[in-house]
Amino acid sequence: MASKASGIFWTWVHSSTGPKTTHFWAPVCNWFFPIQALYDWNRDPAKISKEMQCVLVCYSSLFMRWALRISPQSYILFCMHLFNATLQGRLLIRRLMWESSQQKAIEDKPTN
């Protein structure tokens, strides 16, 4: 049994998507984008860059499709971009909700 598992492992290591290729290491390194988004999860919305979040959502949305169109398909890259687009989108929503509440507070402020 261990021999079969070992054979499967070494087949993967030497495959076109194994750790000897950029098809493995590029998606692994890209995981730092969603890790940073998790780090920013509770950040003050005033410090979240609306423009950067828009760019990251668009970037990940485009590369999700690309990850499935290349040969060999990169499911690691697809999952990373799906996770990143979701997290960055949530940060963008937080920023937009904060801006809306700030605008409402200015409008509701009584004038003397």
Show unreliable segments: none
Largest sheet properties = none
How far the N terminus sits from the C terminus, by CA atoms, comes to 82 Å
Task: Report the order of strands and helices.
Answer: HHHHH
Question: Strand fraction band?
Answer: under 5%
Principal-axis shape equals elongated
How many beta strands in the DSSP annotation?
0
Put simply, the count of helices is 5
Structural class comes to mainly alpha
Percent helix range = over 70%
Rg, nearest Å? 21 Å
Structure notes:
There is one protein chain. This protein has 112 residues and is mainly α. The chain has helices spanning 2-13, 22-30, 32-39, 50-69, 75-108. The chain is elongated and about 80 Å long. The mean pLDDT is 89.
Topology of helices and strands:
Elements lengths: L1 H12 L8 H9 L1 H8 L10 H20 L5 H34 L4
Helix pairs in contact: 2-5, 3-5, 4-5
Name some characteristics of this structure:
112 residues, mainly alpha, 74% helix, Mitochondrial pyruvate carrier
Task: Describe the structure concisely.
This is Mitochondrial pyruvate carrier. The protein has 112 residues and is an all-alpha fold.
